[in-house]
Amino acid sequence: MAVPSRPVAPAPGRMSVDFEERVDFARLRQHRLRRAMAALEASDLGALLVFDNNNIRYLTGVAIGEWTRDKLCRYALYTRTGELYLWDFGSAAVHHRMYCPWLKPENCIASYTTMRGAVPPDAHIVQLGVAEIRDKLAAAGVAGQPVGVDFTELPMLFELQRQGVDVRDGQQVMLDARQIKSSDEIALLATAAAMVDGVYQDITEVLKPGVRENEIVALANKRLYEMGSDDVESINAVSGERCNPHPHNFSDRMIRPGEQAFFDIMHSFNGYRTCYYRTFSVGRSNQAQRDAYKRAREWMDTAIEIIKPGVSTDQVARLWPTAGDIGLADEKTAFGLQFGHGLGLALHERPMISRLTSLEAPLEIQQGMVFALETYCPAADGVSAARIEEEVVVTAAGVEIITRFPAEELFVTNPY
């Protein structure tokens, strides 16, 4: 008897258990380091020096929370000789020595940080930090080789150069590593999406005249953190006349009968993110709204149908309407509306799909990529608009959709 095949993107329970295989975090960390080393060896770099929290987590498996998102107070060094160092904020480095046995204790180091320039330059913190980094490069046997940096403060960049470090673009190398997901990464992405499935059910139950956009944002934040989200990055809540043009934010606007509202829920589970739009009409819908939704869904389905390994991103982008087709002046203005982007530890990874970039610089779609597809269609009534997003895993035969809340037709909440 044939064994049934498992879903490519399961959304397993979030606890570790002994009675079935779920996410193996040791295997996840090993996969990521192997991918990073392969990308590093394919480059001309001797090491990667990363300040982006997502890159730090990819290399080290360590995160210390949303507080560090904009501080630039943490950094990691990974050399082509296999040495991995993590500089973290103050006593966090001590914690890692105690609780992160996959890292060498002596390689967990308290960082030098200017706290985005708040520390006076005369304290020479940047100089001390760079000198320590250079010592580690020498100890790892890669002194004098180019170092790839993802992004950093200008004083750090200037000091690296002043002390003789040949700085190159390391972000492209990290994106090379991160673009193909392992089964563990896909399971975490699917679990994050499953959590949003549930939040959308909650939204449909309260989305009625009189509720405000910010109340929906508050509900979604509460539910996601209750379900185990480690970071609700952002939630767009857009309704009524704010739907067209799309403002990419939320307000305190009160929703009225017959209006459209769309939401984008961006959060992470164990670091792995969602970008997940759904559009609703409140109480009732009109023909213009239904027509716009139908077009947006057709654009989505046409893209999904063509995607498989070997297809290039320009082939997908050409299936979508031009900026002029949706009433905008140029593709720069329309960027992000008919759109595809990779998902992983960051909200925007490879592949990127748009008419602005993909026609000139196409990328081949590969098995194991995970990305979100977004379509947008303004309605003929001049104020409404449809916004749909599906997250997909690229398989050998096509895609598996991991965003499961119904979106085939315009969903009317609390109809009357």
Strand content: 15-25%
According to DSSP, the number of beta strands is 16
Number of contiguous helices: 11
Main sheet: strand order = 4-3-2-1-5-6
Number of domains: 2
Ranges where pLDDT stays below 50 over 5 or more residues in a row are: none
Radius of gyration: 23 Å
**What is the highest CATH level, the class of the largest domain?**
Alpha Beta
Structural class: alpha+beta
Main sheet characteristics: 6 strands, mixed
Q: Which architecture of the largest domain does the CATH hierarchy give at level 2? A: Alpha-Beta Complex
Share of helix, binned:
25-40%
Silhouette = globular
The average pLDDT score comes to 96
The CATH superfamily of the largest domain turns out to be: Creatinase/methionine aminopeptidase superfamily
Order of helices and strands: HEHEEHEHEHEHHHEEEEHHHEEEEEE
User: How widely separated are the two ends?
Assistant: 51 Å
Instruction: Please name the CATH topology of the largest domain.
Output: Creatine Amidinohydrolase
Question: What order do the helices and strands come in, and which of them pair?
Answer:
Elements: H1 25-41, E1 47-50, H2 53-60, E2 75-79, E3 84-88, H3 92-99, E4 108-110, H4 125-139, E5 147-149, H5 154-162, E6 167-169, H6 171-178, H7 183-206, H8 213-227, E7 231-239, E8 260-269, E9 272-273, E10 276-282, H9 287-306, H10 313-317, H11 331-334, E11 339-342, E12 349-353, E13 370-378, E14 385-394, E15 399-401, E16 411-413
Parallel strand pairs: 1-5, 3-4, 5-6, 10-16
Antiparallel strand pairs: 1-2, 2-3, 7-8, 8-9, 8-10, 11-12, 11-13, 13-14, 14-15
Helix pairs in contact: 1-6, 4-5, 7-8
